[in-house]
Amino acid sequence: MKKSIFLFCLAFFLGTALQAQEYHVITSVESIVPNGLGRSRIINSLEDKDYNEFTSVQTDEDNTRNKSDRRDIRVKNFEETKLLNFYNLGGIRFQNIAANDSMITSMINSMIADGWDLAFVTSAVESDSGKDDGQGIFITRYIFKR
């Protein structure tokens, strides 16, 4: 009897551990364009795409092209949450950064409430490269799994 209970529990936990995991990426883009002229958003895709449909194989012998058009890659169903820009006419706005932190925290808490775990966070910046550039973004990808 004890062996059968043990085997049942073992099978249950192994079955649970072997379940496939699902990932979801949400991206925040925060403008670092001076004078508040940029656009800052949280972007959440509502569509799934299969990367295999848009992948081709390149070899020396042949060039197997994928039949998909680049326009097919575009996602038309997504959520766009407004954020504030880092700069305004007076320069950097710390209130805007705090407001964006609050919005991003709300998004993360909502995802966690929906059963997702925040697995990874990665960020990058393309910043102003001199007095004549005036362009830049700060991008962060939040990778959730369940």
**What's the number of domains?**
1
Instruction: Assign the structural class, choosing from mainly alpha, mainly beta, alpha/beta, alpha+beta, or little secondary structure.
Output: alpha+beta
How much strand?
25-35%
The coarse silhouette is: flat
- Structural Rg: 22 Å
Main sheet, how many strands, which sense, barrel?
5 strands, antiparallel
Report the order of strands and helices. HEEEEEEEHEE
Explain how this protein is built.
The chain is α+β, with helices and mostly antiparallel strands and 146 residues long. 25% of the residues lie in helices and 33% in strands. It has 2 helices and 9 strands; from the N terminus they run αβββββββαββ. The strands form 3 sheets. A 5-stranded antiparallel β-sheet has the order 5-2-1-9-8, covered by helices on one side. It has a two-stranded antiparallel ribbon with strand order 3-4. Strand 3 and strand 4 form a beta hairpin. The longest helix is centred in the C-terminal third of the chain and has 20 residues, at 94-113. 8% of the residues are buried. The model has no long low-confidence stretch (mean pLDDT 84).
